Amino acid sequence: MEFFGVITLLCGLYCIYSFYKARVQGNLENYVLLPKNADISKIKNKDEYIRRTSIPLLILGIVVTLAGACDLYNSQTGNLKTLNIILYFVSVFSVIVFLILIRKWTKEFL
């Protein structure tokens, strides 16, 4: 499970990094929330898009990072089995809710 924990941890950190790039720098290049072939110049209101999507992205990043860190810790010690299972269910739920919101916002702004 260590490999899965590392991948999960890195995905969560990438979400946090994308939040930083969008919210602080205003940069949407390689933004994790935009479709692969989306044209950034076609976004109707860039500031509003960043404002709406960045906080859920940060929450998702924190939840997924915690799940990955907990999985790595649990792989080494075996002490957090229950918390590990709970965090994975919470992160799957967070991803589902997040995908629904992003799909809605992408239709609205692109």
Give the class from helix and strand content and strand pairing: mainly alpha
Average of pLDDT:
88
**N to C succession of SSEs:** HHH
Q: Supply the number of structural domains.
A: 1
Low-confidence stretches: none
Number of strands: 0
What oligomeric assembly is this protein in?
single chain
Global outline: elongated
The proportion of residues forming helix, as a percent range, comes to over 70%
Radius of gyration: 15 Å
DSSP helical segment count:
3
First and last CA, distance:
38 Å
Give the biggest beta sheet.
none
Strand content: under 5%
Protein name: DUF3784 domain-containing protein
Organism: Aequitasia blattaphilus
Transmembrane segments: 55-73, 85-102
Keywords: Membrane, Transmembrane, Transmembrane helix
Structural features:
membrane; single chain; 75% helix; elongated; transmembrane; 110 residues; DUF3784 domain-containing protein
Structure write-up:
The chain is an all-alpha fold and 110 residues long. It has one domain (2-32, 46-109). It contains 3 helices and no strands. It has helices spanning 2-23, 46-77, 81-109. Helix 1 (2-23) runs antiparallel to helix 2 (46-77). The longest helix has 32 residues, at 46-77. It is elongated and about 50 Å long. The N and C termini lie far apart (38 Å). The chain crosses the membrane at residues 55-73, 85-102. Keywords: Membrane, Transmembrane, Transmembrane helix. This is DUF3784 domain-containing protein.
